């Protein structure tokens, strides 16, 4: 019995080894078949990643969009367009700036008021003339020799606004001043007051023959505008 049992075990072991060897090619064939099946397109649209590049990874061809003309022709047209647009833009900017400057510049009537020319031959000695310049009155006094001497002998240290007569005139016989009181802007009266010059009746300011404040609330002398004598007998104010 023991011998029969051992013989049976040996036969079973041999059969198991043969069965294992026979199954190896079957598994290898099954694996190869599954790889071939996976390489083929699936019915559901799946494609193996190791087959190759997809369409999305390929560089597109732009040949249909390229110009058939020579590159030099295309560049010449581009340069022409850029230059034309630049010239048009420059012309528009120039026109805009010119219109802006015209609107900002003074008009003809304002320029006419900027300067006033006065004929001094029409003013006798010892008389005053009042003209309008830039909306303000201007006093022009043709002074006599005695008036000039009186203006020069005043001690300027006693004046509220010290100023020599020579510093207020370009020619001693001609005194040119703005006819506006330096207190509150009133217009003084000529040949009046305690000092023989000008008097402001509004608040009692007295100016001498040189237009300097001598008495009253005015703090400063009458203002001297810009003027010149371009020729004998002509005065230009402004």
UniProtKB/TrEMBL annotation:
It catalyses: a quinol + 2 Fe(III)-[cytochrome c](out) = a quinone + 2 Fe(II)-[cytochrome c](out) + 2 H(+)(out). Binds 1 [2Fe-2S] cluster per subunit. InterPro entries: bc1_Rieske_TM_sf, Rieske_2Fe-2S, Rieske_2Fe-2S_sf, Rieske_Fe-S_prot, Rieske_Fe-S_prot_C, Rieske_TM, Ubiquinol_cyt_c_Rdtase_Fe-S-su. It is found in: Membrane; Mitochondrion inner membrane. Residues 140-236 form the Rieske domain. Pfam families: Rieske, UCR_TM. GO terms for cellular component: mitochondrial inner membrane; respiratory chain complex III. One of its GO terms (molecular function) is metal ion binding. Its EC number is 7.1.1.8. Signal peptide: none annotated. Keywords: 2Fe-2S, Disulfide bond, Electron transport, Iron, Iron-sulfur, Membrane, Metal-binding, Mitochondrion, Oxidoreductase, Respiratory chain, Transmembrane, Transmembrane helix, Transport. The keyword Lipid metabolism does not apply. The keyword Secreted does not apply. Its main location: membrane. It is a single-pass membrane protein. GO terms for biological process: mitochondrial electron transport, ubiquinol to cytochrome c. The Rieske protein is a high potential 2Fe-2S protein. Belongs to the Rieske iron-sulfur protein family. This is Cytochrome b-c1 complex subunit Rieske, mitochondrial. The lineage of its organism: Eukaryota, Fungi, Dikarya, Ascomycota, Pezizomycotina.
């Amino acid at each position: 019995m023991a011998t029969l049992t051992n013989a049976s075990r040996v036969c079973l072991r041999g059969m198991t080894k043969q069965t294992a060897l026979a199954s190896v090619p079957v598994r290898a064939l099954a694996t190869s078949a599954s790889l071939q099946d996976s390489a083929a397109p699936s019915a559901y649209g799946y494609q193996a990643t190791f087959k190759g590049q997809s369409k999305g990874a390929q560089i597109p061809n732009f040949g249909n969009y390229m110009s058939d003309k020579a590159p030099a022709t295309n560049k010449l047209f581009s340069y022409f367009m850029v230059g034309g647009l630049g010239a048009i833009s420059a012309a528009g900017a120039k026109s805009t700036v010119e219109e802006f400057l015209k609107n900002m510049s003074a008009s003809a009537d304002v320029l006419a008021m900027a300067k006033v020319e006065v004929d001094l031959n029409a003013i006798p000695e010892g008389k005053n003339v009042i003209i309008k310049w830039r909306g303000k009155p201007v006093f022009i006094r043709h002074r006599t020799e005695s008036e000039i001497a009186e203006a020069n002998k005043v001690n300027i240290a006693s004046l509220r606004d010290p100023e020599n007569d020579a510093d207020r005139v370009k020619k001693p016989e001609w005194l040119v001043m703005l006819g506006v009181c330096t207190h509150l802007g009133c217009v003084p009266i000529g040949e009046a007051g305690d000092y023989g010059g000008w008097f402001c009746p509004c608040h009692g300011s007295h100016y001498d023959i040189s237009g300097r404040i001598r008495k009253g609330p005015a703090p400063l002398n009458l203002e001297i505008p810009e003027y010149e004598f371009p020729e004998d007998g002509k005065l230009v104010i402004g």
